[in-house]
Amino acid sequence: MDHSDLNRFRKMQTSPMINTSFEESCARVRRIIVDTAFRCGQSAHIGGSLSMVELLNTLFSDVLSHRPHEPQWDGRDIFILSKGHAVLGYLAVLHHFGYFDAEKLATFQTNGSDLIAHPVKKVALGIESSNGSLGQGLAYGMGIAIGMRKRKQDRRVYVLLGDGECNEGSVWESAASASEMGVGNLTAIIDENGFRNDGPNATYTNRIALTNIWRAFGWNVINVDGHDHHQILSALQQAKQVADMPTAIVARTVKGKGLPFMENNNDWHHNRITGTIYEECLKALGGSTGSELETEGEFRG
């Protein structure tokens, strides 16, 4: 990417949350996802990144204790993206909240970059865990949460999983253990967008609902509309009040949310944004632009 391209990329990026509504903030994160996917020139996991925007935006803006300019702060809460293929949405949020600048984001999926197609742990960038194989994040998060509890730290761990990921047996081994040990500082957020890599996630139906399964494993379970800020925030706040059992927030979402031609279209689980498609994305997103990101301070939910 030459200097002129980088300047254009900077101009595409968002300003921080200051004086913006939650809806505007989510729209800007979606714009970052689209811009970055287009700029890298390669296929990326776009649909599952778009479905979790409101979930991550609520968590990082209103609930998570974190300091973007002091990412290794000892008092921080921990977020783990277990559905690691959706890293583009995670990186867009980290950039939006000031963990790294446009130059770093512009290296996504380029040779030698820290920002590749799945998370690679680098706390200096806000990335708390490496993740490639599905089903690993909950166990990792549970271990961290137990360590916090043993040290009597007032900290929490949040793990975001996909509903397709919940087909992995390791998820349920971890769920059973977390319930047995009463890991109350652990919250699982399930992005239930109804799809997995190979199509609709038919494993969980109205007869065998994810909600019922998590509850049967002994978790405090809360159902939300995964695009409703108030419902998500209320659920995350409720989770903080339950000290003796882990909480699972089952969030019903739309894969590809915000781009009508991508919504519930599993062709966009992993795909490439061409120039023509990029123009269509901009029209759907209102063609908004923003300024170079600059944000400071500590976020405390």
List the helices and strands and how they pair.
Layout: H1 3-12, H2 22-40, H3 47-51, H4 53-63, E1 78-81, H5 87-96, H6 102-105, H7 137-150, E2 157-162, H8 169-180, E3 186-192, E4 195-196, E5 199-200, H9 210-216, E6 220-225, H10 229-240, E7 247-252, H11 275-284
Parallel strand pairs: 1-2, 2-3, 3-7, 6-7
Antiparallel strand pairs: 4-5
Describe this structure in words.
- With 301 residues, the protein is of the alpha/beta class.
- It is 38% helix and 11% strand.
- The protein contains eleven helices and seven strands.
- It has a five-stranded parallel sheet, with helices on both faces. Strands 4-5 form a two-stranded antiparallel sheet.
- α4 crosses α10.
- Residues 1-19 and 289-301 have low confidence and may be disordered.
Can I get a quick summary?
The chain has 301 residues and is of the alpha/beta class. It has helices spanning 3-12, 22-40, 47-51, 53-63, 87-96, 102-105, 137-150, 169-180, 210-216, 229-240, 275-284, and strands at 78-81, 157-162, 186-192, 195-196, 199-200, 220-225, 247-252. Helix 2 (22-40) runs antiparallel to helix 11 (275-284), helix 4 packs across helix 10 and helix 7 (137-150) packs parallel to helix 8.
